[in-house]
Design brief:
single chain; about 525 residues; Beta-Lactamase; six-stranded antiparallel beta sheet; 14 helices; rod-shaped
């Protein structure tokens, strides 16, 4: 793993860890708090919508009740109206209700169910329509409802529209007050739910029994396996709604998948069940946008930290690479090029500056040490050259025996005297190679041999040795010792005394002849 990668991981962990800790500790509580506020806001929105819906209901009820009081205020009795009276009453009702675009029709029935007045909206105005006998089941039901009400009370009925079977029509019925106790008839208003509930176009409409009568195209799928469609039983799909619908109060309901609806009752009579329940999806876009914004902010912070950390790690890695290159270049200059004045100079933290100073000092000391070593090596080579020249020009054989008894040096004179080359002699035991033994005179003059481990030996003795060809050779051995690397080494200086022995023998022979 590269250094910059390690630095990046460490710095990223140090930068992100506090954020992750903060998010882990506070995010859940913050989200819960936000959801609580959102729930309260939704409940408040439900209350506001309910107030607005009630205001709309009161407005249409007021128009209905004013229209129902028109016959009495005009001195007209519905059951005894002649054609002129019907025409006059129809004009009065048209004048009162024509501006309400949501009103599709107006019907006035006497207590027997006879339809006295019928107005239908044609384009933008209410116009007289042919009267029909009250044989329709819906109209009979409305008549019974209206006659059972008290004055100023309203009842409703949701029916299909004859002009458009796929649509529904909301009919309102209220009794017409008479001169005496009892209702003089029933006034019915037919409303277009889409116009009356234009502020709730996104709402699903459900009867108190749970039957779905309208589902807008934008309504969400509450249950993918059981889609919400007109005619379906909502309480069968969601049984937990039954207890809420029985309270006739607005409420916020959430299904198992987290989707929420505001349910509002459409109430025209406090003593009767609502005409409809309106289920409007709760707009959670603000909450989703807030959560997405929070996630985007966290991701943005993490990415920003990652970029900053990457730049810092890259800068640190480049700084370290420059230091490494400077060190390698300096070492190459010191070790291979022999430069003496090598300087390391870096800017940055005090530790880096101190490192540069210490490396500069170390380079200077190394240069001094190397110079001294080179001088010592030159002196050593000079000494070795002198030693080689001295031993090479010597007439006597010079050999050196290490502390193991093996030959470690063998000069040219030794090779000439004994017949063994340096390659043949080096590393061989010297006693095995030349087989030295004391001569007769050497035995007389020799002293007791002193062990090498007892200290240096300096003595001269005469020995008889053998050459490579097996011939014997009288020699004079000057033996001394020296310590090399704390080890005793013997130095043998060997002189061929063959001629001297011959001269001594001749002299001895001449002396004997003179004596005789």
């Amino acid at each position: 793993m590269k250094l910059r990668t390690i630095i990046f991981i460490i710095l990223l962990a140090l930068g992100i860890l506090p954020i992750l800790t903060l998010v882990g500790v506070n995010l859940r509580a913050h989200i819960n708090q936000h959801e609580t506020v959102e729930t309260k806001r939704t409940a408040a929105a439900a209350e506001n919508s309910f107030v607005s819906l009630n205001a709309r209901v009161k407005c249409i009820k007021k128009s209905l009740l004013q229209a129902a009081a028109t016959p009495l205020s005009a001195g007209l009795t519905p059951s005894s109206l002649d054609p002129a009276g019907r025409q006059r009453l129809a004009e009065l009702l048209r004048g009162q209700l024509n501006t309400e675009k949501m009103i599709l029709g107006v019907r006035l029935l006497d207590p027997s169910g006879n339809q006295l007045i019928s107005l239908r909206r044609n384009s933008d105005s209410l116009e007289a329509a042919p009267t029909e006998a009250a044989h329709a089941e819906a109209q009979s039901q409305l008549l019974r409802k209206g006659l059972a009400l008290k004055t100023s009370q309203v009842d409703t009925l949701l029916t299909g529209d004859q002009a458009d079977p796929a649509a529904t029509r909301l009919s309102l019925a209220t009794p017409i007050p008479g001169a005496e106790d009892g209702a003089a008839g029933v006034l019915i208003l037919d409303l277009a739910p889409d116009l009356f509930l234009d502020a709730h176009v996104d709402a699903c409409r459900v009867t108190p029994a749970g039957t779905i009568v309208h589902v807008p195209a934008t309504f969400p799928d509450l249950e993918p396996m059981h889609p919400v469609t007109p005619g379906a039983d909502l309480l069968a799909l969601f049984p937990d709604l039954a207890s809420h619908l029985a309270e006739n109060r607005p409420f916020v309901w959430e299904n198992g998948s987290g989707q929420s609806l505001i349910w509002l009752p459409l109430i025209f009579n406090d003593h009767l069940p609502p005409a409809l329940w309106l289920g409007t999806p709760v707009d959670r876009s603000a909450a989703r946008e807030w959560k997405l914004s929070l996630i985007y902010n966290i991701v943005g912070i993490v990415i920003t930290i990652a970029v900053i950390v990457s730049l810092i790690a890259n800068a640190i890695a480049k700084k370290i690479d420059r230091i490494k290159d400077a060190i390698l270049t300096g070492l190459d200059s010191i070790l291979n090029k022999g430069r003496e004045n090598v300087q390391f100079n870096w800017t940055g933290p005090r530790e880096v500056v101190n490192l540069a100073e210490e490396l500069t000092t170390l380079a200077s000391r190394y240069a001094i040490t190397r110079t001294r070593q080179q001088e010592a090596e030159a002196d050593l080579r000079q000494s070795e050259d002198k030693f080689r020249n001295l031993t090479a020009s010597a007439q006597d054989a010079i050999a050196m025996m290490d502390h193991h008894g093996n030959i470690s040096y063998w000069n040219e004179a030794a090779a000439e005297i004994f017949g063994f080359s340096a390659a043949e002699a080096l590393g061989k035991p010297i006693h095995t190679l030349i087989s030295p033994r004391l001569s007769e005179s050497g035995q007389r003059d020799a002293v007791a041999e002193k062990p090498m481990s007892d200290g240096p030996i300096r003595e001269t003795i005469e020995l008889i040795t053998r050459r490579k060809d097996g011939s014997e050779l009288p020699i004079e051995l000057s033996l001394s010792e020296a310590r090399i690397k704390d080890k005793w080494n013997s130095i043998w200086i060997i002189r061929d005394i063959t001629e001297r022995r011959r001269a001594e023998d001749e002299t001895r022979l001449q002396q004997q002849q003179l004596v005789q």
